[in-house]
């Protein structure tokens, strides 16, 4: 087990002791967020999403983090409504319970007409919902790949810098080279944190003055960097652009001083990674903003609700009281598909629509980048030649 210790200034400690309860609660919230991005607060055993085992028995045993957990209340409610309708239907027809409904009874005959319309409606609803889930999952997958693209371009930038820094006669990094790699690595970590603070609501507090100050006290940035960020005349959700520029400018300065190889190929490679990094980050925002038109979602919500609300009426002529179980299965199926699609359309959980186990754990991405930001420097510290 690894323990992390943080040393803070005495003035900060006194400020915490004398702070009102509201401020302490805010500090605790900030600390919880910092823990997620600094690697001390794991979720899903350190995976970006909950992993599964392909065994059928294992999958059937799962409840937490599944669509069953999210839709069980709606399913039970609809089954209860169906049971009440069955009681009403038996009272209206005078037929005994659990006896096959008599089609000669006018009440049952009219329900049979509803059943025929329901058959057409369910066929269309099934097609529309499955198509909706497929499109939503494609959107979810695109966002996931873009998050990995940003991470990969950060890693590539650090790799190019690490492999083109100055070495001494022993093929070891010079003091200036080590300082360069550490600074650019720290810039990349700060960039990645502020990037997700601008796109994910649960990390949004980190881009506020209080959040920035807390990150500085926890060692995620220097006091000088904090001052620069606070004095910038940009919106809080645009602060991540500053560390991105620092990475490039610091590399250019190192080239001018001979610490980093001053070659056109190196400059082109670094600029290409920065452009790709910026484009991927922009694509995430663009896709989230244009994920699905309101008119489509509104029409779909009404379309699938019609057969859902008529299950108990339509199934009674054929199944009688056994329609209660059938309604439960159909409700779980249709509400599950609909809610699953909505979950896929909110991969960052900005809408807080689902349980915690159903969205991407961005803290994993950030912690992975934190680790890899110094990996290339460590991997190339000593050479076999």
From TrEMBL:
| A Pfam family the protein falls into | Bestrophin
Q: Which GO terms describe its molecular function?
A: chloride channel activity
This chain's protein is named Bestrophin homolog
Species, as recorded: Cylindrotheca closterium
């Amino acid at each position: 087990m690894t323990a992390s210790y943080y040393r803070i200034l005495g003035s900060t400690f006194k400020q915490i002791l004398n702070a009102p309860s509201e401020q302490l609660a805010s500090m605790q919230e900030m600390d919880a967020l910092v823990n997620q991005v600094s690697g001390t607060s794991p979720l899903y055993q350190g995976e970006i999403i909950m992993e599964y085992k392909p065994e059928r028995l294992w999958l059937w045993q799962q409840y937490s983090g599944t669509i069953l957990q999210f839709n069980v209340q709606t399913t039970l409610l609809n089954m209860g409504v169906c049971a009440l309708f069955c009681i009403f239907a038996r009272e209206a027809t005078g037929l005994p319970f659990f006896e096959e409904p008599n089609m000669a009874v006018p009440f049952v005959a009219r329900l049979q007409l509803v059943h025929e319309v329901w058959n057409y409606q369910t066929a269309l609803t099934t097609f529309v919902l499955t198509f909706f889930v497929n499109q939503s999952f494609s959107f979810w997958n695109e966002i996931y790949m873009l998050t990995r693209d940003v991470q990969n371009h950060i890693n590539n930038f650090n790799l190019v810098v690490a492999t083109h820094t100055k070495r001494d006669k022993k093929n070891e990094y010079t003091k200036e080279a080590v300082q360069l790699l550490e600074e650019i690595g720290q810039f990349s970590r700060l960039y990645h944190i502020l990037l997700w603070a601008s796109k994910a609501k649960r990390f949004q507090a980190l881009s506020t003055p209080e959040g920035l100050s807390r990150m500085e006290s926890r060692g995620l940035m220097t006091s000088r960097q904090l001052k620069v960020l606070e004095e910038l005349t940009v919106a809080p959700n645009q602060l991540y652009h500053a560390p991105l520029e620092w990475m490039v400018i610091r590399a250019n300065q190192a080239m001018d001083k001979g610490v980093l190889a001053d070659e056109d190929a190196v400059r082109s490679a670094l600029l290409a990674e920065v452009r790709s990094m910026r484009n991927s980050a922009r694509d995430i925002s663009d896709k989230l903003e244009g994920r699905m038109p309101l008119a489509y979602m509104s029409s779909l919500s009404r379309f699938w609700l019609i057969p859902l609300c008529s299950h108990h009426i339509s199934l009674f002529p054929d199944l009688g009281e056994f329609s209660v179980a059938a309604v439960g299965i159909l409700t779980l199926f249709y509400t599950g598909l609909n809610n699953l699609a909505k979950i896929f359309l909110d991969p960052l959980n900005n809408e807080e629509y689902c349980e915690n186990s159903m969205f991407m754990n961005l803290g994993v991405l950030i912690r992975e980048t934190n680790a890899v930001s110094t990996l290339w420097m460590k991997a190339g510290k000593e050479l076999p030649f």
